Amino acid sequence: MDAKRRLDYATYAVFIALIMCAPLVLEEFWLNRIAKFLVYGMLGVAASLCWGYAGILNLGQGLFFGLGAYMMAMSLKLASPTSLQQGSDKPVPDFMLWNAEPGAPTDLCCINRGSFLWLPFQHQWFGVMMGLLVPVVVAAGLGWVMFRKRIAGVFVSIITLALVLLVRLVLIDAQPLTNGFNGLTDLGYLTIGGFEFDPYSAATYYLVASALSLSLILARMLVETRAGLILQAIRDDQNRVRYLGFDVPVYQIFFFAVSAAIGGIAGILYVVVADFASPTFLDLTFSITMVIWAAVGGRGSLLGACIGAILINTIEARVSETEGFLQAWRAIIGLIFVLVVLFLPRGLAGLANDAGEWLTGRLGGGRRRATAPRVASSE
Amino acid sequence: MPAALTIDGIGVDFSGVKAVDGVSMVIEEGELRVLLGANGAGKTTLMDLISGKTKSTQGQVFLYDTEITNWEEPAIARAGLGRKFQIPSVFKELTVRRNLEVASCHNPRVFANLGFGLPRAARRRLDEVLALTGLTAQAETIAGTLSHGETQWLELGLLIVQNPRVLLLDEPTAGMTAAETHRTAEIIKDLRGSHTILVVEHDMAFVREIAERITVMHLGQVLAEGDIASIESDARVRAAYLGSRGIG
Fold first, then answer.
1. Closest CA relative to residue B197, chosen from B181, B215, B183, B180
2. For residue B170, which phi and psi values (nearest 5 degrees)?
3. What is the pLDDT of residues A4-57, one digit of tens each?
4. DSSP assignment letter at A49
5. What is the tens place of the pLDDT at every residue in B41-95?
6. In angstroms, what separates the C-alpha of A356 from chain B's closest C-alpha?
7. C-alpha–C-alpha distance, residues A265 and A40, integer Å
8. Domain that holds residue B28
9. CA-CA 20 to 30 A from B234: which of A176, A281, A354, B175?
């Protein structure tokens, strides 16, 4: 293992150690806030995997996040005390009752036409499983259609962008089932084996931090495999890969689905931490914001994109406490994006990488310098 | 010698335009065949038809005894036919070694490739190919920073590492300096005998250096076939392609 890679792994270890130690110094309010940002960090990982490694610029990552979130929120809605106190021995979401036709039975099976779909969500494990499965199945199906047809580049971005908007519309329109614009609020706690995950507790923070650490490690391992290497080759020249005998769409579908799975899990966790799900998760601006996180952090680095997400959100949270900045924030973030694209195409991770290379070159002296990439170029 | 690549009356009709029209040729195992022809003669289209990029509207292609007519590109590649493109295509953001590692993945299935690294034999083969293509010193260089000639050799290396039974090379010396062209000829001569090779080429110095048998195409059809002396003296070839002054 060369020095650069060792440094790389060390950065992962330091990052994971840092987020694991955060509860020691943070109070409840910030703990919950940072937990949300760590969820965004997972979205950064998903964006980097998809965009940086697979070369697929997904402008609708919010779709997978939103689907995961709603699946979880449906389960947690049924676990909420208000759902349990609607005059029936079975839980019924309050908004369904408010909008029920006169005389409709107070039962999930038939309070309105689609409400039976909620029935299995009484089991929280079902909500969690669907939160993972639905995004994966949607991504695989979408990938199947797009990548088999050899759709690439900006067209993938347009399709994903259109799809997230379409699903958002459907979600809002299916008001009797989804509470439309208002989303799902007043949720119960996620309960695993009798343990309740209070959004403001350290336990919930650790749940999110572990999920982020795991997805970082797994995603990193995945891109280090031969399949990950082939994926990067597809990003660089998919035709060449095809003529080397590989089924390009299968690789693209696989990694697109993995990225969607991370997005889905992020959605699940966000609901646990933030206590609501809303159609704003499927807003275009949110999906594009994810791309900005990844660009600023460095799309070519899983950890970079993750840190980009956490950093931008932490700054945003700080800045928005000052009223004047609150309005200017969008302009500031837009400016940062433009500056990064122009002057730091590899993002903060690229900057850190160059610094690391310089450092290892320094420490290893002339011996290392000869093998450092780019320096050894023949030109 | 068994026939490695048999092309039988292959042709394609692009809504009225027949870019390749009933081309037949048999290339024996271990042979190095050069395909010659003016621009628009249908050389690259013929390669597209063989490698599955373009679907033919007539004729058949056999790789040894297997008919591969109009198969999907990856299936043809897996059957043992490697193709190099006119515009060199390599994986620009990966190092030279990583480029070759991609081609070294033996099993094309995604789940079979969820492991790390390559078996010892594949790594040894990779080092051999690095040496053969003269890229050993550049092994850790990012492919995007290679010179044009080196990029061409790397793409050649991608094919060689897979050990295909038949190699299609589309203008492997395009844009190369004389020294680079000579080096490419050396690589190709190294492959001769162990691989069956079909080369499209314009550079006559290069053709003289490597050619055994030459097939000349003109307007989508085979005009002549033979060794370099008989091609140079063929009156129809002179008229169609070479001009009255002869080859080169």
1. B215
2. -100, 105
3. 788 889 999 999 999 999 999 988 889 999 999 999 999 999 999 999 999 999
4. I
5. 889 999 999 999 999 999 999 999 999 999 999 999 999 999 999 888 999 999 9
6. 17
7. 11
8. 3-242
9. B175
Beta bridge partner(s), residue A241: none
Residue pair A127/A142 in contact (Cβ under 8 Å)? The answer is: no
Nearest CA in chain B to A250: B110
Select the residue of B103, B142, B146 nearest A244 (Cβ to Cβ): B103
SS3 category, A300: coil
- For residues B73-109, b (16+ Cβ closer than 10 Å) or e, as one string? bbebbbbbbbbbbeebbbbebbbbbbbbbbbbbeebe
Task: Name the average pLDDT for chain B.
Answer: 90
Residue B97 lies in a domain: yes
- Give the whole-angstrom CA distance, residue A198 versus residue A190: 8
> Contact B116/A225, CB-based, under 8 Å?
yes
Phi and psi at residue A8, in whole multiples of 5°?
-60, -50
SS3 content of chain B, % helix, strand, coil (to 5): 40, 25, 35
Q: For B150, which residue in chain A has the nearest alpha carbon?
A: A378
Contact yes or no for B89 and A246 at CB 8 A:
no
Domain count, chain A: 1
Is A134 part of a structural domain of the chain?
yes
Give the number of other Cβ atoms within 10 Å of residue A193's Cβ. Answer: 4
State the CATH number of the domain containing residue B17. 3.40.50.300
